[in-house]
Design a protein that fits this description.
This is (2Fe-2S)-binding protein. The protein is about 35% helix and about 15% strand. A five-stranded mixed beta sheet has the order 2-1-5-3-4, sandwiched between helices. It is built from six helices and five strands. Strand 1 and strand 2 form a beta hairpin. The mean pLDDT is about 95. It has two domains: about 70 residues, Beta-grasp domain (Ubiquitin-like (UB roll), Roll); about 80 residues, DNA polymerase, domain 1 (Orthogonal Bundle), CATH 1.10.150. The chain is of the alpha+beta class. It binds FE2/S2 (inorganic) cluster (FES) (2 copies).
């Protein structure tokens, strides 16, 4: 089994690790970097629970090999707050009751954050399109849409995600 050295920055912290060629980014984040906020919800690339930002774009981290993220910059749910204060999207989910069991929430929050980076003022249809790759068993989605709309009106993607996207832009 081949191993490869990778250098990946996660939530602003650089790391150099040796990983198996077949390892998925979601397992690297959870097991090697001990960031278990990124969830695994399916075996089919359908649920979106594993969504993170990679170089400024949302990806399902169960569809990305760790070696493919070599040199990359990842933002996970653990990196979204700013000096202990939740990001606007996180606050929106709290204010509008956008979660119940919470299993889908990290992925939903990252997808919504990615949407607001691209479209700061999305209408409800755009919000639903932005989160269509994320499944929720609990909420019926209406409160999630309310949460994203709340975030759009209260700071959007937030400073951590905006800085991450700007840094990624500088690399391209
Ligand atoms: S774990 Fe379900 S899409 Fe990645
Ligand atoms: S809040 Fe339970 S799956 Fe979405």
């Amino acid at each position: 089994m081949s191993h490869h050295k990778v250098r990946i920055t996660v939530n602003g912290t650089a790391g150099e690790d040796e990983v198996e060629a077949r390892q998925l980014l979601v397992h690297y984040l959870r097991e090697t970097r001990a960031l278990t906020g990124t969830h695994v919800g399916c075996d089919t690339s359908n649920c979106g629970a594993c969504t993170v930002l990679l170089d400024g774009r949302t990806v399902k981290s169960c569809t990305v090999l760790t070696v493919a993220a070599d040199g990359g910059d990842v933002l996970t749910i653990e990196g979204l707050d700013e000096q202990g204060e939740m990001s606007p999207v996180q606050q929106g989910f709290q204010a509008c009751h956008g979660l119940q069991c919470g299993y889908c929430t990290p992925g939903m929050v990252l997808s919504a954050t990615g949407l607001l980076l691209e479209q700061p003022d999305p209408d409800d249809d755009a919000i639903r399109t932005g989160i269509e790759g994320n499944l929720c068993r609990c909420t019926g989605y209406d409160m999630i849409v309310d949460s994203v709309r709340w975030a759009a009106a209260h700071g959007g993607a937030g400073t951590a995600a905006t800085a991450h996207a700007a840094h990624a832009e500088g690399k391209h």
